[in-house]
Amino acid sequence: MMWLLGLGLVVTLATVECLYRAALSKVPAFPPRPERISVPPLHARLRWASFEGSAPQQVEAVWPWTLVHVLADMLVFKPGHSLWMPHGYRLADEVAGEWGFQCEDAGGRRLKVFERIALAIWLTRHWSAEELLAFEAEHTDLGHRVVGMRAGAKVLLGNEWARLDAVGIALLLAVADAPGRRRDPWCFPDGIRTRRDWILKRMRETGVLSPEETDTALRTPLALALRPSEWEPCPIPGQQPSE
């Protein structure tokens, strides 16, 4: 009986790996590995914590047995509990999604669901946390053709990315997470501030910020730079913005 159970496990793991490789083979192109890793330490800590909580800043490679563990956890998932995921997978999935949009913008096709999952798994096996953070920070769309945190810090806050404090970084992350034209913090300050404050509270929960630092940050205004004059006007109040 035991050998049958063992054989069944081996077959299951082999099948999962074959499905992964089949989906990966259909990915039209792979993202280039970042050449320079220069993410400010504070940004890396905040962004990692927003995806992984207080987990160590280290990617856990996803293998067939890891996937079986995730599937088993999904079967017994209870509302109110966080679904277990290998450390770094959520960030890898974000990078895979951003790469899929870039492929589509370049005239290719959008990655299908299983292709995106397969690419995220591949990234956990081949990229470090620093590389994932660098790629995500460099390619994040902040709206109005502002791409990347370095450019976003200058346009939105009139400052250098490396000089931002937790409040400034949280604001950039809030803009990045907002949908469509709601990324514009001048047009939709309430929504951006709500999201920024949620991120700051998340930083407190994960131990990145102390309660005192969080309270001070929450009282800080958005402190935006001047809105670029070439941008299209904000929507008229009551008008539904395009997403």
Keywords:
10 helices, 56% helix
Describe this structure in words.
- InterPro entries: Glyco_trans_51, Lysozyme-like_dom_sf, PBP_transglycosylase.
- This is Transglycosylase domain-containing protein.
- It holds the Pfam family Transgly.
- It is a single chain.
- This protein has a domain at 140-226: Orthogonal Bundle (Penicillin binding protein transpeptidase fold).
- The protein has 243 residues and is mainly alpha-helical.
- It has 10 helices and no strands.
Instruction: Please state the average pLDDT score.
Output: 86
How many β-strand stretches? 0
Query: What's the CATH class label of one domain?
Result: Mainly Alpha
The residue ranges in which pLDDT falls below 50 over 5 or more consecutive positions are none
Which fold name fills CATH's third level, the topology of one domain? Penicillin binding protein transpeptidase fold
Number of separate helices: 10
* Shape-level CATH architecture of one domain: Orthogonal Bundle
Helix-strand pattern, N to C? HHHHHHHHHH
Helix content: 55-70%
Q: Could you describe the largest sheet, including whether it forms a barrel? A: none
InterPro entries: Glyco_trans_51, Lysozyme-like_dom_sf, PBP_transglycosylase
Pfam families: Transgly
Protein name: Transglycosylase domain-containing protein
Organism: Pyxidicoccus parkwayensis
